[in-house]
Structure formats: C-alpha cells, structure tokens
C-alpha cells in the first residue's frame, strides 16, 4: 500500500500546511505521520493483546486497524487542513466535505488501481467485511448510542477508539502528531505517549468495552491536551501563520477556475485520479506561471506578497467572552469540555472496573476553563507609506476598544486591575527592534540582524524552502524533508556564534595587552623619575630605561597587530551574509542537480574546477596585505583546508536530527574552544588540544552519514532515476543551470543582475536563463510525474518507477582495494560467466546487472583528518601547532577512506534475484564449486554445487560416489547427518571416495580402492589453517578447518607458527580456550610474537571466529555514546562507554553480564534490538558491564517427557534423528547456546527457539500441539 502512487502522494503534502513559512523546521509531511500512526496503532494493539488475550484480537483486527491508521490521511488536499477547512467551504459553501470522506474514496481508488484486493485476501482479510471495518475506522466510528457499526460487533467496540477516538480524543493519531510536530517545530513536548500506551487496558463501561487508563496517568493526559493547546497557540494558530493561510486560501480561490484547463481546482475532489495529482505543488504552479497567463495575475500577486513578506501587519489580539463572539478558537480539546470528562480510569487494585476521576483526585491547579476564543486585528495597507505610524495608531485604537468593551465581550477575567502604558512599551520595542528571532529544532531560538532578514525575505532566498537538503534521501528516510532554507539559517547563526566567541577572546587578549602596556608605562615613568633623582649610576639606569622602552614598544606593536586582527561588526555581517547565501546556487534536489549538469554537459567548465578557483582566490588574498591578518575569516563558512566549518557543523547536527541517526559529535564544544592563533605567520582558527578526539568524532559522524544515508544503496539508485528523468525532460521543460560550473561568485553576480534588471525591465538572454533557474525547485518532480505531455513520457516513466518502487535490487556490496575500483564490472561479468557454466538451467545475463563504486571517507582528502588541524595549549593561547600522534587515541582506524562496490539486479524476477544474490555470495567467498556424481569414476548423474547442502533432497542425485573439487575446500559427510565421519577434499579429482579420519585431507586416488560409504551432505569450508610445532613453519604440521580445545590427537604438541589460509581464528595460550587470547586474520605468522604483540608463549587451543557483531549504547533507546564490537569484553574499559543500557545484536548470540569479568546475573541475547535493559533482563533495570559471544553449543535430547528413558547428547545440527539412538524428542536440556527445534525431519516447520534451560515436555517450549514431538534440531548462530 505504501508503494502506490496514491499513498506516495502524501510525501508532497506538508503535515502543518503553510507553517513551514513561519517555522523553518516544519517541513515534515503526511507521509511520515501516517507511517507513525500505523506503527503506534500496532504497538497499542500488541499491548492490549499481550495483557488481555481474552479480548481475542485477531490477526485480521491487527491488519485492519493498521491499514486504517496508514490510510486515514490520504484524503488531505494541498497544505492539509487549509484545503478542507478554508478553501473548499469558500468555493463550495453548500457542500459539507471533509478529508476523512476523501480518505475512504482514495483508499478505494488505491485498491482498484493497484489490484490490492487479492493482496489483502492473501494476508487473510475477509472481504468485503474487513473493508467496511477499515472505512468505519477512518470515518471515526461512532460516539455513543445503539451500536450501528457493521465492520465489527459491539464486543470489539474498543477497536474503534485506536485510530480516531470520537469519545475522548485520545488516539494514536494525536499521539503521533503531538510528538512529531513538537520535534520538528523545536517546541518541548509535555507528555510521554509511551506511558499512556503501556497503561492502556480495555474495561467494560456502561455495558460497552472501552480503552481505559491507569488512574496515576491522569496528569499525563492533562499534559497531552495542554501540549495540544500549546501547539495551537504557538504554531498552528500562529498570528503570522494564520494570515499566510488566509493569503494562500485567497490565491487558491482566485486560481480556482483558471489553473486547470476545463475544470475548477475544487472539482477534483470528485475524481480521485485527478485528486492524486493535487499536492502542495499547486503553490509553485501558481507562483511560477508566466506573465502571459493574465487569468492568474491576481493569484500570483497574492503569493508574491507571501514570498516577499508583504503581509498584513498584526495589530493586536484579545480573548473573548464566548457568550458573545466566536472567531478563532483554541483549547485543550472539544469545546466546553474538560479533557478527562470522557476518560475512564482503572486502579491497581481492580483492573477490570473503570470509572471517571473524582474532582479531589486530580490537581487543583488545573485551569478553570479549557477553551478560549480569540479575535485578531490586522492592518493591510494598499501602500507602504507611513505604514509604521499608522500601525502604531491602530494598535492604540485596538487597546482602547478593548478597554471600552471590558467584560462585555472582551474577557478580562484575569485582569490584575493595573493598567500599563502599552503604547510607550510598543514604541520602545519598535525603536529597539534590530533583529528577528527564528525558532529552530536544532538550536532553539536565535536572532539574526535585520539586514539578514531583508535578504531572507527575497524570492531568491525563499526559493530554498523548496529544495531539500538531502536531495532524494527523503524517499528512503521519510524524515529527511528538511531544506536548504533552514540549513542556511543554521549556518548564519553558527557563523555569528563562532565570530562572537572569537571576538570575545580577541577583546579579552587585547584588554590584557593594554593592561600590560599601562603597567610598563608606569614602570617606565617610575624609572624616569628615579633617573632624575639619582644621577649616580646613570649608565645602568639608562640601559634599564632603554630596555623598558623596548618592551613597551613591542607591546604597542603587538597591540597594533591584534587591533588589525580584531573582528569588526562589518566583518561579522559579511561572514554571516556569506553563510546565509552559500546555498543559493543549489538546483532541485541539491547535489543531485550538479550530477545532472555533469551528465548533460560533460567536460564543460573543466577550466573552472573548484580547486583551481580556490587557489586563485587564495593567491589574490595573499597578495593583498590587509587580508593577511584576517585570513581566518575565510575558514568560517567553507573551510577548504581542513573541512572544519559552520557548514559542516550544521549539516551534521541537522541531518542526524531529521534522519534519526545518533550524532556522536557536539559542535558546541568545538565552537567554544575555537580561537585565532598564529601559525606560520598567518592567523588561523585553532582548537584546544583536548578537542582532538571530538574532531575525530565529527569526521566519523560524517562517514556514518555518508554510509547510512547519503550513499545508501537505494538512495543512489533513486537519484540515478531522477537524473535520467531530468535528462529526458531537459529540453521540453528547458531545465538548465545558471552556468555550467556553479561558481558562487558567478551565481551571486547573476542574482544581482536578475534583481536589478527586473526593476529596469531590460534583462539580457543570459539573465532570462538565470530567472528560469530561480523557478527550478524540487517541485520539478511532481511537474514531470503528473504531466500528460507525450514529450515527457520517458521522464514520467522513470519517476513512476521511483514511486512504485520498481527499482534495481542490490544483490550485494563488498569492500574493494584501490586497484579494483575500475575492475568491478569486469570481475562481476567474469563471475557471471563462471556461474552460468555451473548452472546451465538458470542463466544470469550481464545486461540485467549494473555496478557502482562509491567512496566513503572521513574527509575529502582521504587522509587522517587531524593532520590538517592546528591546536593551542592551555599554557599558550596564541600559538597553534599540530598535535602529536601519542596525544590522540590509539583506537583509530589505520586508514580513513574505503571503496565500496555494489551490484544491482535490474529485472523484476524473484527467482533470478535470489540466484543473483547466491551468485554474489559465491563470488565473494572465492567461487567455491564442486561437481558431484552418484557413481564412481565421474559416471552417472552429475550435479554442480556452489553452496552448503545439508541434504541432497533438492538435488538431482541421492548420493555422492565421486566428485571434482573445482575450487575451494569442501567437507563431504558420510550419511544424512553432518555428525558422521567426513571426507575433507581440496581442489582436485576424486574418482572414488575414500573414507579417512575426521579432519584428514584426501588425495586424488587412481589405484583401485575398497568401495567406501557414499556422501549424503556437504558444506564449503570457509575456514582453513596450517599449524606448525616450530617457528618459521617447521617441524610437525597439522591442517584443520574446525575448532580444537586441545592439540590431543593432532600430531603436534604446541603451535609456534601458522598460516591462516581462510577465515578468522582465535588463538589461546591455554587448553580449553583459556586466556590470553589473540585474533588472527588471513596471513602468515612465523612465530608467536607475530600474533601476540611480543609474547613468546605457544598456542594450545584455537577456534574459528564466526559471525558476531553487536552495537552497544550507554543510554536507553540507542542514544548516547556507542561502541561496536565483534569480540568478548570482560569490561568496558577503553570502549568509550561506561555501561550498556541498550543494544542492537547485529549477528550471533551473546551473553550479557551485570558485573565486570562476566559476573552473574547473566542474560542471553539473540539477533534483534533491545531499547533498554528491561528488554533483555525480564524487568530489571541494571546495565550490563561485560559480555561475551556464545560459541559453545550442547543439548541433551530425551525420547520421553520429564527427561526419562533414552538420551542423546549433541553439539551439532541434527537433520534427522537417524543414528542417534532415539526416535523422537519429548523433553530436552539446553546446556549451552541457543537451539531451534523442529517438529519435522529436515528442519520442517513448525519450529521453536530454546535458550539455556530445561524443557520437561513439548508444552514447555510452547508447542502448537502439546503431543507433537521434535524430529530435528539446529544451532542458532544468527
């Protein structure tokens, strides 16, 4: 459902309508809100189902409620509630139309156009009964009275209170928008929806089941409704936001009969296919219409007033007595109702009985009323002459009017009786207002000067509101809707903050120099006076006097230099303007547009490469002596020397915030430690030496963002699709840049030309091109997607593929060596050729695959980022120098760049995609392959195998009598279970399998041999190691592919050198894997010093390192400092975190311990996410302090219940129980590891996962049939 055009349309409808024009961060959309509501609906249902299984909440109930939650806002029009609450009522006053009705119609349209009925039936829904239920949920069910719903019986009435609760307004829709809106607006959220969710319970009230809450959360519910009121007061009904709503509504009314040929805008609500194409893009459609379309002149003029902030001026507002007037209402919930009037609560002592709260049970500090009505007055002058004076007079009149109507219809209920001179206060504020406050979700409230505000209120800058910061990443990360507009504001704010810090430190240092000069002047005067009094010792005193004069002169020279370096107000303004305007040249989807330009005009503008221009600019500055002392100013906005600048500080913090990726770097610490220091006769911005690790964190955060988001495997594919669409539409839509190379100076000059020429009406053809560029925004996506022109057919198809998720599938990615960067396609083609030879029945074609190579690094120079940063010491603040290697962490990577190769499959075939993924895995594991024959001497039926095969059930042969190992090392097992004797085979031909002892290699045999047992299963061995008893690979030798707890029977007594041919191994100096331990990767180790950092002790046991990886966090919900590891840790010393309160087990099974050094209590964690310690410890809150991998597996299987009769103990997987001495398993003891037990042979479902413990009967492992025994078992290693 999400991957349909009808639902994807919500990406282009902002959740808060026009409020992003007042709150820059409010760019989130109905798309992510709908996902959030569906998620919370599932969480609430899960809570109710787990706590009250008697409610009989079925799988169908789960699906229907979540579908309704997902689709409840599909009917919203442009700018959300502005469309159905203001525009439709004005153009169709006799029609009662709400977005919920349109949501139901759009839901049916989505089903019909995308064939979803079959899909819904496939997932178990009963049609049409469940469709009716979904409709009723979207339409908010019923409030009270006789039960009239048809989708579900009255026994499940509580299901109608989850998505949209008509009874008391407490529903998951409200929970999501309150938290989400606060997050993006930067407004504190005053309630915790998780607490309400966990306390929810169904009780019978007045004969009907309702969702009730624990009595102790009553204050939390008040907090929820108060948060709603706060949002309405501060944002949704903001005085400027409201008037912008009015203006845009007026523009839509004016354009209603002129924008769409042959129909009104309002008519599309009757045609869902046309309504699908109506989004916030209508704003750009009207604004960017050509002047030749005179029918839209008035609408366009209104929107130009919005862009240029030519808005009616706010005069004042007053609270009204609701008995007389109702204009603008704001409140906690339903008008005239106390928020918890219709909420029922249960107590700890009685979970089944719910009732309303008594007055004495709730706070006495709650408001007397929960709703208010507001009247607002605006002044809308036709011309701007004397605007300020008229506005001040209007404000005076308004306050007088309020006093006259005191307690008549103006509410003075909280009047203190004291009157203040509001006129004088307003005049004072008017005169002293030199800046404007912006509310930002990252920095809170900050001020920018009026000059910057004038720049912001221009069409050229306002255009950035419609260019997303992360290009197409919002199509993968729904929250990444933030724009270049807010990023530019953040840059300007940080530039001002950094300059303020630098200037304060400069002022402080200059003050110190002046004090030194005054002191030296006093000393000099004292010496002069002494000289006059004593003419004896004249020579000595004159020398001393000269020395004092020289010192004074040096200080005066130093003072002059520092004053020349001093940051002026002009400098601060210029740097902030540069930061503000840095992004003006971005085209649609930010950096994506630059890639489009390079493909459109390849090689054009090479002579103006950024590096060459920067070098040219630097030489120009160096030749101008006046800039030498202020060279550091060029490092603030975009630092091309070491990459530490306010641009990066802002985008790291902002992108992490919107993407939901943890940010491990605090720019405020760096900002406060910055100061200007001398480095090689030039002034540079330096940082305190103790900030070195923070700088590494900054660059690591950059790497993380590139890896997880900017270069995400799907993001790069979507960007490529959009670029192709732009290339196809380039000529038809006249898409072009301002210039082939977007030089900031070039762009700035052209903007000046456009703005000046527009006033003089004599624009050149080049300026007309620039004017066209200024109309290019992200709305080009919708313009192409919803177009009907034949010329745009190919471009439209590319974007439809994006919307419908008809995208190439990534079959795998791998790290590459530098020499392999240009060889990926060739290597993959060679792998395909070999694969096709081995699998003639299913060919993979080269033309169905595409490859890409991306570079991930810490900085653009691909070197240690710290090498280009200068630091100052605590004892010397004026001199900057590089930091010493021994002063920074030794736990840093050895290199700071890597190449990642990706392979994509472009067709839509599940079978071939699966084969492609197998081919990729096979390629990465070394192209291991083996030919099997069911008769000796390579006769009989032939079967080619490229992966592990636990049985031959799905092969064309039933046993193996001879084979050819084409590549790799293979282990063939005698019998159906890989617990029997085996044949270990290297590359070569094996005419007749010859049974040897376990772990011994078999050579190709040509001589006649006894007929051996056949093989029934096989696996590729990714681990092989050669062990030597003496150093330098001498003495007795042992070759193995398995773990060894001791060297008994291996033919050697100890290991003093080895060759790791494949895999990663742990070596132990003690038997039975006793520490110390060392990890060895592929390579040769001529002595024990080579693997033990200088130790000389031999190894006595070793084991393979299987796939284990875990991500640890110091705080709950995956926040705070974090640490990734693949090995055991007896303590957290040196890991960068103090304790573990949440974690993500990425692979393997792990034991967590609450004490250091693996001290109990202990908990076992499998693959998954654990947001807090309660999630892994059955409710305990203590953090984990040590952890280790679960590497050993052992289980005792009993044929009868309660551990009676025959028992079989195993440490390996059992495909069947043949040869185990038991026929079935009815009880078991898991001694170590995690095991999957299956009711059928060959790992046939159903299956159950068992952790360490005792299971006396099938019921103890929750078998669906308590009488059904287990017939096969397998270790859980993932």
Detailed description of the structure:
By secondary structure, the chain is of the alpha+beta class. The strands form 13 sheets. The chain has a four-stranded mixed sheet with strand order 1-2-5-6. It has a four-stranded mixed sheet with strand order 10-11-14-15. The two termini are 31 Å apart. InterPro entries: Beta/gamma_crystallin, dGTPase-like, G_crystallin-like, HD/PDEase_dom, HD_domain.
What does the secondary structure layout of this molecule look like, with pairings?
Layout: H1 5-8, H2 30-51, H3 59-71, H4 81-91, H5 99-114, H6 116-122, H7 129-138, H8 172-185, H9 193-199, E1 201-205, E2 208-214, H10 218-236, H11 239-255, H12 272-275, H13 282-287, H14 297-307, E3 313-320, E4 328-331, E5 345-346, E6 354-355, E7 371-379, H15 387-404, H16 422-432, E8 435-440, E9 444-449, H17 450-456, H18 459-462, H19 484-533, H20 538-565, H21 569-581, H22 591-600, H23 610-623, H24 646-659, H25 667-673, E10 675-679, E11 682-688, H26 692-710, H27 713-729, H28 744-760, H29 765-773, H30 780-785, H31 793-803, E12 809-816, H32 824-838, E13 849-857, E14 871-873, E15 876-881, E16 897-905, H33 910-924, E17 929-935, E18 939-945, E19 962-967, E20 970-974, E21 982-985, E22 988-990, E23 1001-1002, E24 1015-1020, E25 1024-1030, E26 1034-1040, E27 1057-1062, E28 1065-1068, E29 1077-1080, E30 1083-1085, H34 1089-1092, E31 1101-1104, E32 1109-1115, E33 1119-1125, E34 1142-1147, E35 1150-1153, E36 1162-1165, E37 1168-1170, H35 1174-1177, E38 1186-1189, E39 1194-1200, E40 1204-1210, E41 1227-1232, E42 1235-1240, E43 1244-1250, E44 1253-1255, E45 1272-1275
Parallel strand pairs: 2-5, 11-14, 21-23
Antiparallel strand pairs: 1-2, 3-7, 4-7, 5-6, 8-9, 10-11, 12-16, 13-16, 14-15, 17-18, 17-19, 19-22, 20-21, 20-24, 25-26, 25-27, 27-30, 28-29, 28-31, 32-33, 32-34, 34-37, 35-36, 35-38, 39-40, 39-41, 41-44, 42-43, 42-45
